[in-house]
Amino acid sequence: MCGFVALINSPEAKGLDTNTSQTVLAQLTQTLHHRGPDDIGYFISDNQQVQLGHTRLSIIDINNGHQPLLTDVSVLVYNGEIYNHSELRTELIGLGHHFNSVCDTEVLAKAYEQWGVDFLYKLNGMFAFVLFDKQNDTVLIARDRLGIKPVYWHQTPDNKLLFGSELKAITAHPDTQVQLNPRAISDYFSLGYIPEPYSIYKGINKLEAGHYIQLSLNNPDSFTDVNSIQYWDCLKAINSPTNSTTQQEFEQGQALLCDAIDKQTIADVPVGAFLSGGVDSSIIVSQMNRHQNVSTFSMGFDQTDYDESQQAEQVASQVQTKHTAMTVSCNTFDYLPELIKMFDEPFADNSAIPTYLLTKQAKKQVTVMLSGDGADELFLGYRNYRLLKLEGKLKNLLPKRVSTPVFKFLAKVYPELPWAPQFLRAHSTLEALNNDFVSNFHRAMSINSPEILQQIFSDKLLSQLDGYSSRHYFKTFADKVTVGDCIKKAQYIDFKTYLPGNILTKVDRTTMANSIEARVPFLDHRLVEQWISKSSDQNIKGSNAKLLLRTIAKSLIPKAVVNRRKKSFTSPMDEWFRMMTQSELRKRMQLEHLASSEMFNMPGIDSLIEQHYSGKKNLGMTLWSLSVFAEFLKQNGMKPLIKTSDQNKK
Can you name the residues that pair with 77 across neighbouring β-strands? Predict the structure, then answer.
C-alpha cells in the first residue's frame, strides 16, 4: 500500500524550472508519508512535463519494490495490490518478458507493455496508478473496478493536471485554488459523505471506480477536455438477473470466496483481520486460520446496546485466533482534528473514529488487515433492503386509491399508536409508503432529512442550491436498472455511492493513517459478478437476509454464527451527546465557525440542540455532522462566503 502524486504539464506550458519542480513535487509527496513510511521516490521527465512522486508501505518483495518503477517503456507509480500477479507473471514470462523482482508493480508495467489499456481487464485486485508511456508520449491514470483505492484529480487554470492518492496532495500545490462546492456541502449534510466524482472543493474530482483517463502529452486538447472512460460496471450483471441458484453455483461461490481470502492473505509482513462476530468477518477469519494463526481485532462500546465485542470474542475463541478487543467511550470529540486530517473533507460516519483507534492498536502487531466490507452490499444484508421489500408488500395490500388516504392517516396518528405491530414501528414514517422508491431510499440513506437541511442551511445557501438534492443523483443510477425489483435498484445505488464514497473511503483513510493496508475479499470482482445478478428474493425472506451467503458459509463457520443477526457497527452518538451539559456540547461543536461561514441558520441549529436535549428527537448524527463541518472550516482557515453570482456547478 502506498501513496502517489502526479503533475502532468500541458505541452503548451512555458518556463518550467527544474529546481521549483523538484521542490514542489517533494512537498506534495511528503503529504502522503503516512501512506508509505518505508520509502520515497521521485521522477521528473527531461522536459519536466511528467512529474511523479511516491511513498511506499512495503508489503510484498520488500527489498525490490521501489517506485517510481522505470522500465524501457514506462514509468509507474501505483497504490494497491494485484492478487493474481503470480499468474500474470507466469503468463508474461511465457510471452517473452523478463522480470527483476517478484513484486506486483513490475507485473503491472509489463502487462501494460503486452496488452495496452486492455490489461485492466486481466487484473484481480485493488489499485490506483499513473503510468507514463515513454514510447507513445501518453499517460494512463486508472482506478480499480470497485473503487477500493482512491484517485483525486484537478485541472489548474493553466491546464496543469494534478493527480493524487488523497485530497491533501492536490490542495498543497501552489497553483490549486480551493473554493467550497455548495452542492457538495448539501451532499455531505444529506448523506454524511460526498459521493464521487465530486469533492468538497469545486474543480477537484475523484476518478470514479472502474474508470481511467488517458492523456496524449503532445495534444493540447487532451488537457482542456479531460474525460474519464468506464471500463467496468456491475450494471450488466444486475440487469441480467437469475432467479435460482444451483448446488454447483454454491460450491463454486464457496471456492471463489476461499480463493479470494487466500490470495489476499499473502504478504511478506504480518497479516490480521477485523472481527465483529458476524457472518462476514467470521468467514474470513476462519479461512485465514486454516493456514496460519491469525491476529484478530474487535471494537466494543461502553453502551451495551451497541456493543458486539462479546460475539467477536466467542468467534475468536472458537477459531482460536490471537484476539485483541478495544472499548471506546464517549470522548469522540477528542479525535475530531485527526478525523479531518485523515479525510481532508467533511466525513460524518460515526464509526470512522473507532475504526481508526482499532487500526492504531492493530499496527502494533500487523501491517495488513482483512475486512468483511462489501458483503452487505453484495448479499443484501442491510436493514434498508428488508424495509424496501416490506414496503412493496404493504403497498400491494390495498388498491392505490385506498392505500393513499389510509397510510396518510396512520402517519398522522402514528405517535398515538402503541399497539402498532413491530414491523410498522420499525419504519420511520408510514407516509413514505406513498412516496416513490428513490425518495424513500434516499431518505433511508440520509443522516439528515430534507426538513432538517431546510432548518440548518441559511437562505443564502438554499438559494445557491436552487432545489438541488442528492436524491437526483440517486435517481440517475436507479433509472439504469431496467429489470428486477426496487431492491436491485437500491443495491446498484449503494455500489455507486455508499460503498465507494463511505465504506471504502473510511477503510482506506483510517487504516492508511496508521500505515496499515486493508483488504476486502468480498469485493473480489469475480464474486461480485457471480452474486450480484441474483434476485433479491434469494437473499431476503421476511426478516432474514444474506441467505445466499449463509448457505455458502455453512461448512466454513459454526452454525450459531451462520444464523447470527447483523448488528451495525455504529457508535452511540445520541447517548454520548446527552452525557455532556448543553453548554459543553455547544462549546465542543465550535458553532462560531459555522456562524462566520454565512452558510448556516444558527437559530435553527440552536433549536435542534434544544430538541435533542429535551428528548423529543434523537439528533446525535445531525449535531455530529455539524461538529465535523465546523472542525473542517477551522482547520482550513476558511470563511466561505457564498456569492449570489456563483453558478455553483460541480
Answer: 130
- The CATH number for 245-379+497-562, chosen from 2.40.160.30, 3.30.70.260, 3.40.50.300, 3.40.50.620, is 3.40.50.620
| Cβ burial 564-602 (10 Å sphere, 16+ → b, else e) | bebeebebbbbbbbbeeeeeebbebbbbebbeebebbbe
Average pLDDT, the chain: 89
CA–CA distance, 607 with 242 (Å, rounded to integer): 50
Q: Lowest mean pLDDT of 157-171, 282-296, 327-341, 446-460, name the range.
A: 327-341
- Work out the number of other CB atoms within 10 angstroms of the CB of residue 331: 9
Computed on alpha carbons and rounded to an integer, the radius of gyration of the chain in Å comes to 25
Contact 206, 199 (CB under 8 A): yes
What are the tens digits of pLDDT across the range 378-420?
Answer: 999 999 999 888 877 776 776 666 666 666 665 555 544 444 4
Q: Which of 258, 244, 257, 283 is nearest to 537 (CA)?
A: 244
Say which of 2, 103, 234, 486 is annotated catalytic: 2
Alpha helices in 430-563 (DSSP H): 437-445, 450-456, 459-465, 470-478, 486-496, 498, 504-512, 525-531, 547-553, 559-562
The pLDDT of residue 18 = 74
Q: Which of 134, 213, 156, 207 is nearest to 10 (CA)?
A: 156
b/e for 134-164, b at 16 or more Cβ within 10 A?
eeebbbbbbbbbbbbbbbbbbbbeebbbbbb
Beta strands (DSSP E) in 73-124 are 74-82
Q: Which three cell numbers stand for residue 326?
A: 478495544
CATH of domain 2-230: 3.60.20.10
Ranges in the chain annotated CATH 3.60.20.10: 2-230
Q: Is 604 annotated as a binding residue?
A: no
If one compares 91 and 354, the residue with the highest pLDDT of the two is 91
Alpha helices in 7-60 (DSSP H): 18-30
pTM value is 0.92
Residue ranges of the chain that CATH labels 3.40.50.620:
245-379+497-562
User: Is residue 371 a known part of a binding site?
Assistant: yes
Instruction: Please say if the pLDDT value at position 312 is more than 80.
Output: yes
234 among known catalytic residues = no
Q: 53: annotated binding-site residue?
A: no
Q: How many Å apart are CA 26 and CA 78, to the nearest integer?
A: 17
Rounded Cα distance between 248 and 488, Å, is 24
Percent with pLDDT over 90 in the chain: 70
| pLDDT tier at 421, thresholds 50, 70, 90 | very low
pLDDT in tens, 20-30: 789 999 999 99
Round to whole Å and give the CA distance between 593 and 583. Answer: 16
